[in-house]
Write a structure and sequence with these properties.
By secondary structure, the chain is mainly alpha-helical. Helices cover about 50% and strands about 0% of the residues. About 10% of the residues have low confidence. The structure holds heme C (HEC).
Length: about 120
């Protein structure tokens, strides 16, 4: 009789913990969700360069439309970040929004702002 009770309670416990585990299963997030990147993992090469290359490289590069300032490498992008031009152009209509009439996504702007606040990790 004692063994039966023990087996029964083990069964009940394992069934219940199964339920609880399923109930608190987190909602799946897509791996591309940049909001979830931890601050200490943000770097120019991993997170900022792809955004700049894709959204600014078509104009601000000597081999494309050749428009200054060039934004082709860490030093050039950091320079524009340090003097405040990078942030003012990606956020503000005035004097001009970059990319022209095609603003960055909020998560991209947020990443760039974080990168600047972290003093431009390379
Ligand atoms: C379609 C082409 C194009 C794209 C894409 C583009 N720009 Fe520009 N950008 C320009 C032009 C043209 C100017 C010069 C505008 C002027 O001086 O009137 C300019 C000027 C700038 C300047 C100088 C502004 C100043 O006041 O000195 C910065 C900084 C800049 N862009 C940043 C960016 C960034 C960052 C991106 C991407 C997020 C970007 N641009 C994407 C065309 C582009």
């Amino acid at each position: 009789m004692k063994t039966t009770t023990t087996i029964l309670s083990v069964l009940i416990i394992s069934v219940c913990s199964g339920c609880v585990k399923n109930a608190i299963e987190p909602v799946e997030t897509t791996p591309t969700n940049t909001n979830t990147i931890a601050d200490e993992n943000i770097t120019y090469n991993k997170n900022i360069k792809p955004i700049i290359d894709q959204n600014c490289g078509g104009c601000h590069h000597p081999q494309t439309l050749n428009i200054l300032p060039y934004l082709t490498n860490y030093e050039e992008v950091k320079f524009e970040a340090e003097n405040g031009t990078l942030v003012s152009t990606i956020f503000d209509e005035n004097p001009r929004l970059m990319p022209p009439s095609n603003p960055l996504l909020n998560k991209e702007k947020k990443l760039i702002t974080k990168w600047i606040n972290l003093y431009y990790p390379k």
